[in-house]
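Below is a typical protein record.
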Amino acid sequence: MGTRFPFGIPQGWYAVATSDELKLGRIVTRRYFEREIVLFRTADGISIIDPHCPHMGAHLGKLGRIEGNVLRCGFHGFRFDGTGACVATEYGSPPPEKARLTKWQVREHSGFVFTWFDPLGRAPLWEMLIPDAEGYGSAKLKFYEIDTHPQETTENSVDFGHFTKLHGFIEGEIIEPLTTNGPYLTSTYLAQRPYGIPGRREPLWKMPVQYAVIVSGLGYSQVEVQIGVGPIKLELRFFVLAVPIDDEHIHLRLGAALKGSWGPLGRLIRFIAHNILCREVSQDRAVWEHKIFRDPPRLAKGDGPIVPYRRWAKQFYPPTS
């Protein structure tokens, strides 16, 4: 276990790939949760497995290939179906009964492929709270590798003080307080994005931005964003999806999707919104990669509900952590 973040790897659902990365017949190897996993898609759907063949230990991410609805090992030709069972050998003999792939849970939603991880090896204890994607276009995505921990990136969603001090918003207020329900967390903020002339102290105008945060565990954060007032109001959905490589490094996928039919203008709006999201995360990254976990933090009025968030986050670790 690392020293900057004394947590270990938390249980939860994690976005280990995008749907587009898993084309039919493609096999992908990823290193997450301090181990390797192998992902592939057949006509029957997506599978995520441990990497080594149960027959003689060949690496299926390196030597496997898709043949119809089965995964064939390139070492001895043993073939496995969507349930993980060995359905055929090259010898014509009956498949070994205990030759089964070790499969991971899979969920596919909003263009992402999720799997469940639990440090104690338990089956999923809860499902993600994901609002319906109807009306939203596809998400523009960017991928980062960052030296930090999912608890740190998710904590930003309740660190109200940093919105104004780091990201430049003004007149911020919490309009719906932090609410937790088991593995789920929600809160809503409103702030003003100032625009003006460099060197001028007062902004020429301000744009109201509302953020409704929906969190499912420490791997899935979704932000429903409303920008503007009156009849012209943009509705966007931001995805902030962390997945641990180990207990001090993550992959972070950032997505932005726009609601409504805007045509070519919509692609421009989505591009600008996604760039703003990435710029703000780059500001956060400069903090994440050099900070330590301070426990207890020496908080001041205006910081936001950091302590309730940390109490909520403890449920995702084994009791002995």
